[in-house]
Design a protein that fits this description.
single chain; 85 residues; mainly beta; globular
Amino acid sequence: ARVTVYKPGFATAEGVQVGDTAVKVRQVYGKKVEKEHAAVGEPPAEDLYVWETPDYGYRFEVDDKGIVTTIHAGSDAIRYIEGCL
């Protein structure tokens, strides 16, 4: 119940893609952005969540340089590490 993108070339409807910055994610989605500690990596790496509906959203994995390395889109399954339940 999710799609994961690891390379640039596939963007969200709002135009955010792998390779963009965490700053851009925050500019595009504003107050919708929820920050959590990165599931993988040390701070300042972070995961940024944006819920478009209560049941659908994005997770942007951001590395320690502030760059989006992975985008997950879908249901609550976006919270699972490596897609595992």
